[in-house]
Amino acid sequence: MYTAQQLLAIASHFAIDGDLVQVKQLGEGFINDTFTVYTKGNSPSYVLQRKNKHIFTNVPAMMDNIVSVTNHLREKVVAAHGNPQHEVLTVIAASDSHPYYQDEAGEYWVMTLYIDGAVTHNRADSTELAYKGGLAIGRFQSQLADFAQDLYEVIQGFHNLGHRLQQWDEALARDRAGRRDLVTREIDWIESRREAMMRFQQLVDNGTLPKRVTHNDTKISNILFDQAGNVMCVIDLDTVMSSTSLNDYGDAIRSYANTGSEDDRDLDRVSLSLPMCEAYTRGYLLQRRSTLTDAELQNLALSARFITYEQVLRFLMDYIDGDTYYKTAYPDHNLVRARAQYALLQSMESHYDDMRHFVDCYSRNSTPPL
Question: Quick one: DSSP state of residue 14?
Fold first, then answer.
């Protein structure tokens, strides 16, 4: 824990406008520690974060990614006569011009401009919010469609199914927690779809699905809205990397369109909400359809199944391995998560033609499907 004086001292190492007044905790982040920095008078406020160096093992490289991406976004917003202070995260440099400050304990701190008047949502609970979430991520990706710089791989093997399946095979062979024989049915879920899902991964590996800038954490809470409900900007760019754009779409459908919860014990509550799926797809493709290739559009609906399959695998693998990655609230929490995600995957499979219909419709125009 850092004292108020320590936090003020850390904030003073950044090139801010105005005199510091106080620093208050902001939210309850599970990875980073986040604070609001207040200054006197009409000077702006700021967001100060301690980055988790155990999760993000190369914070300087991660911040280089964020600076490169936000600089590109800012150029796009300015060219469109928008408001860059509201539509793009503004990274505040430290006194030594680095986009981070490292304290005496070796902890990394970063600062961004606080965006006044912003509204956030913890979950997408309406088709209107799902639509706007699609608009936000679609615009974010579209603005970065011509981004040509290399990005550092912040988390190695993220959404790389070949890498995940190698980890899976090792976890099964290890059987660290002695649970493998308890979940033979669930293991079959993974194995029976292994070849089909790897065909999607091979489209990424061979370049059929091009690698682009992706956010990799597209939940609704990472989008800021103004007081009127309009999208302002996408935040939390820690995991911005190069991968197929379809990963962002697939993960958004997985989170937005689940009628149950990620760890729902009542599997009858878990299914794919077609209205939420349609709304997100409509918003996303309204912004994105002109910058996606035919191959990307043809595989967009499949990406939701791919990402959900990957999540079933990861939860089940962690259960077999003794719950070493995800935080759990009770002994079979990861198994409950895996079963809930599998129920969602089955619902996606049964509604796959509907999902493809939404993509086909909104990739051509914005008229609702019949």
Answer: B
CA distance 199 to 161: 10
The dihedrals phi and psi of 170, each to the nearest 5 degrees, come to: -65, -40
Taking the model in full, what pTM does it have? 0.92
Q: Which of 233, 41, 258, 247 is nearest to 136 (CA)?
A: 233
User: Among candidates 154, 308, 300, 146, which has minimal Cα distance to 237?
Assistant: 154
Report the distance separating Cα 257 and Cα 306, nearest Å. Answer: 15
Strand 108-113 relative to strand 91-92, pairing: antiparallel
Q: Are 112 and 89 in contact (CB under 8 A)?
A: yes
pLDDT computed for residue 370 by the predictor: 38
pLDDT digit string, tens, across residues 225-260: 999 999 999 999 999 999 999 999 999 999 999 999
In the block, which residue shows the tokens 């895996």?
A: 338
Query: 1: which residues sit within 8 A by CB, 6+ positions away?
Result: none
